[in-house]
Amino acid sequence: MTRATAQLDMVHLERADAATLRRLWATYRGTEPPKTFTARLMRLALAWDAQAATAGFEAAKVRREWHRIIKGRVEGGCIKGKGPSQFASAGPGTRLLKDWGGVTHEVLVLEEGASWNGQNYSSLSAVARAMTGINRNGPKFFGLRERAEQ
Questions:
Q1: What's the pTM?
Q2: What is the phi/psi pair of residue 116, to 5°?
Q3: I want to staple 36 with a disulfide (CB 3.0 to 4.6 A). Which of 65, 77, 110, 136 is the partner?
């Protein structure tokens, strides 16, 4: 990440096609983007770089996670988890939206569990069970895990 990254125009970035994003990636990051990166993922990474450069910092944890994603894409085209807890980040304060039964439900992830419809639950699985009436894997139900058959 360089100072020049902070000068990326977000509007230009939003409208850029994949070829333009690849050129921007090479210019601002000094390497070619992984071949498996979609335009959306390149756009998100470049926008993050620009915002972090503008703010003057980037959390080490976030930087490591981006490097893990990029390395996983370069090496095999997909991200492999290190264990059962490897799923998209849904830390405290994250709001999840789920369409179920023709209604969009909003779930708030808490330090200890989650909140839905004014009630606190011990886990996302407990929320999914309350919402659907049957036992479900909460992270998978809310789209935080890739499907096993993919």
A1: 0.41
A2: -150, 135
A3: 77
Residues 26 and 58 in one domain: yes
Given a cut of 80, whether residue 11 has pLDDT beyond it is no
Where are the alpha helices (H) located in the chain, listed in sequence order?
10-15, 18-29, 39-55, 60-76, 124-132, 138-141
Q: What is the pLDDT of residues 71-107, one digit of tens each?
A: 776 665 555 444 333 345 677 888 888 888 888 899 9
Domain of 34, in residue numbers = 3-76
Task: Please name the amino acid found at residue 64.
Answer: R
- Rounded (5°) CA angle 81-87-32: 65
Q: How many helices (H) and strands (E) does the chain have?
A: 6, 4
Number of domains composing the chain: 2
Max mean pLDDT among 3-12, 64-73, 122-131 falls in: 122-131
Amino acid, res. 10: M
CA atoms within 13 A on the CB side of 63: 9
